[in-house]
Structure prediction request, 698 residues.
Amino acid sequence: MPMQAQAGQPAPVPPPPPGDNSIIRLERIEKTYFLGGENIVRALAGVDLSIEEGSFVAIMGPSGSGKSTMLNILGCLDRPTAGRYWLGGEDVSRMSDDELSEARGRRIGFIFQSYNLIAQLTVIENIQVPLFYRGVDLKATYDRCVELARLVGLGDRLHHRPTQLSGGQQQRVAVARSLVNDPLMILADEPTGNLDSRTGAEVLDLISRLNEAGKTIILVTHDDKVAARAHRVVRMKDGLVDQDIDQLPPAARSGGNGRGASC
Amino acid sequence: MLKRLIVPYQFVITVRLGIKSLLLHKLRSSLTMLGIIFGVCSVIAMLAIGEGASYEAQEAIKKLGSNNILIRSLKPPEQARQQGMGGPRGMQLKYGLTYADSGRLMTTIPGVVRLLPMRIIRENVRFAQNEVPCQVIGTLPFYPEVGGAEVVRGRFLAPMDEQHQENVCVITTGLARRLFPIQDPLEHSVRIDTFYYRVIGIIQERSQPEQRTQAGKMEGQPLDNNVYIPLSTSRTRFGEILIRRSAGSFEAEEVQLHQITVQMRDTAAVETADPQIKTLLGRFHDQNDYEIIVPLQLLRQAEQTKRIFSIVLGSIAAISLLVGGIGIMNIMLATVTERTREIGIRRALGAKRSDITLQFLVETVVLSVGGGLIGVMVGILVPILVSSLTTMKTIVTPWSVLLAFSISGAVGIIFGLYPAKAAAKLDPIEALRHE
Ligand SMILES: Nc1ncnc2c1ncn2[C@@H]1O[C@H](COP(=O)(O)OP(=O)(O)O)[C@@H](O)[C@H]1O
Ligand SMILES: [Mg+2]
Prediction:
């Protein structure tokens, strides 16, 4: 078990300047794991990053470069050791455990590599879980959940269990679930990593469509083809942002970048 | 957590979720419940058996009357031994309570309402060809009120009978059956020794005088063979010296009264009178030829014994509930480990620590309360079964059911809290990485 230091020092950083369009601002975010004695791992070594509403960001980089650590902090699953994280104008690095839970439930939709559906619940019940923890009346929002299931193409599988679905179908359920609370952004850690290329592309299409509809998407990937769909590619190295490249929306590109015409 | 408890709708969903998760592992859940079922069942059954056992004892004592003090003549141990060793032939024993004792008790002990003296003589009672060994009891007209007997037919002895030393008698229902298998006993005369007594009434005893006398004096007689005659008649007909013949020798005893029932004003008077009677009688009796029985004290002792009995039985049962609780805790800890990933998912989707705590706590409480309900049903059935298969009396009291059930609920909460807290403490990231 790693020892984790909590963010503790007083903040010299002023609140973000108004008029900024970014919903996410990371300011010198550090994450250090104390493994006992002199053994220290600096998973994040002072990351500065801001992400605007409606953008589609791919995070890439070699294994161990800190992608997952950063995504966990972005997803309010973890607190940075140092630095500040502003999410929609609120300082996440100062939040209590309960506030973090609430932030996750209301502002963030997760899509995981291994789907992470709850095995004993049906498709529709899985989609309802974030609503339940928000304290929403499940009967009143039932129709909306069915709507979401249809949106991801599972309108006829509402009462199936995850084990009765294919990997692609399970990931679609996860996509629907990530949307149910209408979050500020959707975080996806290698969402197509467990899928074959065809179903992976289908799920990716779905995610792209969400972005076209205005959702902010941040996804971690190893796959250049996946990254090519994003508007912006952030490359990490040794716990820092190494490269930060804006790229044209795929629609505006004309088969360049050595990419297939699968889109 | 509180918020979710207050919103019943969400609480219902949490309970339904808990039941669903438990149904996922039916065998495991039912085995876990079994511990609680046995625990609750044994609490109820054991307390019911204990309650039943003490009830009968208490009823027997209550029949003696809690306002009464019983004083009985006893053959002093030394004299009994001499007799037994073949002492001088024709020796005459003199012991026991006297008419003088009766008078002294009445005048010196405060709070005495009245005294009921009794002479108890063993004789055969005859009618036609029938002969039944009986206790011929000389007593006063108010015996039924003090001794707790009910006149079934005719009447009991009247003051006039006492005054005129009438040759009348009242017999018990059992004796009536044995002596008069076909005839109506009323107005017939029975023969005792050489005299005839007219039957004027039949009574039903609530407590048997034989049961009250020492076990050694039972002499294998049927319990319900009593003949009541006026005390004055008993004195004149039988005399003060009672002669008992047995194979070639005879014993003569002089016993004036065999028993005095002292009826006190109330239970408080009983308490104060008890030591006073002891000192008073002690002053006039230089041998140990009487015993004092205070039903109130016996009742207290019986209650005390019952309390200890209940505590011991209850503790044994509580230990089995404890074991059941440990079983639940064990399973829940395993469940938490098994469902670590689910916990991670729920946390990522907005569940607070308290939500996770509640979820697992509800599961354990569903297990233990479910087990408790089944345990209550079995626990009520077992005493009924015991009563119907044996002569043992059992009483299921509502409070024992309530106690067992609430203990089972408490066991669920106490033993569920640790696993639930452990689940809530899990780091979401670690939990998501689990497997
Ligand atoms: N819980 C942890 N305890 C100790 N070290 C960790 C922990 N999580 C991550 N690390 C370390 O932090 C670094 C970054 O990890 P991670 O963010 O998972 O990389 P990536 O996702 O880019 O492969 C790695 O060197 C990893 O070993
Ligand atoms: Mg990773």
Observations:
- The interface with chain A takes residues 3-4, 7, 9-10, 13, 20-21, 24, 341-342, 344-355, 428-429, 432 of chain B (CB under 8 Å).
